[in-house]
Amino acid sequence: MPDKGIQSVHIRLLTQINSGKVILVDFYADRCDPCKLISPDFETLSDRHPNPERVEFCRVDIDGLPDNAVGFGIRAMPTFHAYKNGERIEAMVGANRAGLDSEVRLTCDGPFNEVLTETVSPGRNVEF
């Protein structure tokens, strides 16, 4: 029988993904050294994004949610997915700072260049 906590997290994540916003998800594990290296960059992008009403950043610890890892096709960590209207629109595997920045720029409508040099708003990460 599936764990109710895991089901709840899965449902919350699916609700986010289907919200109409662009949802950027960092699938990570605490034991993963590359995840630890890229995490501050994901946090910075979240903290400085100028359109919180259109873009949301989420982190999912897959060690506690192995069914989610399988369900979302996670085979390596870290993996970053971007969703819009329930559809995955971008995916990136690995702790690649330039790639992560590029994924955010591609998935977010409008320019994003000034975001990396200027703090716009407080962090909005959602932990699952």
Automatic annotation (TrEMBL):
<feature type="domain" description="Thioredoxin">
    <location>
        <begin position="1"/>
        <end position="125"/>
    </location>
</feature>
<dbReference type="InterPro" id="IPR036249">
    <property type="entry name" value="Thioredoxin-like_sf"/>
</dbReference>
<protein>
    <submittedName>
        <fullName>Thioredoxin-like protein</fullName>
    </submittedName>
</protein>
<dbReference type="InterPro" id="IPR013766">
    <property type="entry name" value="Thioredoxin_domain"/>
</dbReference>
<dbReference type="Pfam" id="PF00085">
    <property type="entry name" value="Thioredoxin"/>
</dbReference>
<keyword id="KW-1015">Disulfide bond</keyword>
